[in-house]
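Sequence design from tokenized structure. All designs in this work follow the same two-part layout: the structure record, then the generated sequence. An example of the structure record is given first.
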């Protein structure tokens, strides 16, 4: 097959061989270049690959006249989590989510909390076969409400995530994505359009921070966020990890929050989470609670209605107040929902104002959210 024909074939929906995982799964979103290289157009790195080369993310490799996704149908493990841990605070509170991931990442965050998965190349070798239908079936078997793509960025395994979201929907499950949002336009619309909710990082609010600390670009991520908000029906929440001395000033958080309120809407929940030294950033202290509280005040003053604190115990920063009457409608302790004062359509029981997010009659804020299950990959 010529490179042009292969690109055309890959741009269409690739057929998945019976039995789940393909030995060679043709990737989408790439094109041949005049100099013979193949350019990946999934994320803004646009890796240009010669025969046998892998992209920066490691899980996309040129093989002959196409690029393959080597992580398709390969999971590095699963775990049953409360949805609050993703974090998604306005999505079926108290429900359980089957979380899973693959290997590889297209960013290079110095502070990565999951660096063993995102960077370790041996992880891919240790992955187990987990075709989309099997993940969905496992989620049903353990009583999960949804499947979340979370341990590494689903951008790098977008085809697999999209197929898994479809398999979930066929079984009446929901699908969530947790991502850094550094992805090109068309795959962004397909990936985030395929899931019901997404938590996307807005890791800082300067290009310098993004370039030096994450290897990505702020403007690209902002474009993704606006696309998800304006061109999909996916529920969107944001996370910013506050790193002492790098992105934690109230002025920067105030600018970030003002942009979110103006471009994405004041009802977009923002999670400000505490940094803990990890990976290649061991020289910074954990984020003090006072810093998190100060940043939360700045974000609220900038116009956001829902600003939460994560990776710390803080009752105020974990509570959802009704924007109509100011009463606490969801009170959380850790990842457990303690008080739930919404009706079956997500309206405040005190004043009737609807809380933005995904809520329904199956949302009691039940205690099963705290199940300490951990499923071994060998259980597939
Ligand atoms: S998805 Fe991977 S291979 Fe494609 S451009 Fe991004 S880092 Fe490179």
């Amino acid at each position: 097959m010529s490179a042009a024909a292969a690109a055309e074939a890959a741009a269409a929906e690739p057929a998945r061989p019976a039995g789940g995982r393909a030995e060679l799964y043709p990737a989408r979103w790439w094109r041949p270049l005049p100099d013979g290289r193949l350019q990946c157009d999934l994320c803004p790195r646009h890796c240009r690959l010669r025969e046998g080369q892998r992209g920066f993310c490691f899980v996309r490799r040129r093989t002959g006249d196409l690029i393959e996704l080597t992580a398709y149908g390969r999971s590095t493990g699963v775990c049953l989590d409360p949805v609050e841990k993703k974090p998604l605070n306005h999505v079926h509170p108290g429900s359980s989510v089957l979380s899973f991931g693959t290997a590889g990442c297209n960013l290079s965050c110095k502070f990565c909390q999951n660096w063993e998965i995102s960077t370790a190349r041996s992880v891919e070798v240790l992955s187990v076969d987990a075709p989309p239908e099997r993940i969905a079936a496992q989620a049903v078997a353990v009583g999960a409400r949804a499947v979340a793509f979370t341990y590494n960025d689903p951008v790098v395994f977008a085809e697999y995530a999209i197929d898994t979201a479809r398999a979930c929907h066929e079984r009446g499950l929901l699908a969530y994505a947790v991502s850094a949002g550094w992805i090109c336009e068309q795959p962004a619309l397909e990936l985030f359009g395929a899931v019901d909710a997404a938590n996307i990082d807005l890791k800082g609010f300067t290009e310098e921070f993004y370039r030096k600390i994450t290897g990505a670009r702020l403007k690209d991520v902002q474009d993704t966020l606006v696309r998800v908000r304006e061109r999909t029906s996916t529920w969107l929440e944001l996370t910013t990890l506050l790193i002492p001395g790098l992105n934690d000033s109230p002025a920067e958080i105030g600018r970030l929050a003002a942009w979110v309120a103006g471009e994405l809407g004041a009802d977009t929940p923002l999670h400000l989470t505490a940094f803990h030294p990890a990976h290649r950033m061991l020289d910074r202290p954990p984020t003090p609670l006072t810093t998190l509280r100060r940043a939360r005040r700045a974000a609220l003053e900038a116009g956001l209605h829902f600003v939460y604190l994560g990776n710390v115990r803080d009752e105020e920063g974990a509570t959802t107040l009704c924007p109509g009457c100011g009463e606490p409608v969801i009170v959380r302790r850790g990842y457990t929902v303690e008080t739930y004062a919404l009706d079956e359509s997500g309206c405040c029981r005190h004043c009737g104002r609807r809380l933005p997010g995904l809520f329904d009659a199956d949302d009691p804020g039940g205690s099963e959210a705290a199940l300490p299950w951990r499923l071994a990959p060998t259980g597939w």
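Residues 3-11+19-69 form one domain. We note this feature because it recurs in several other targets discussed in the main text.
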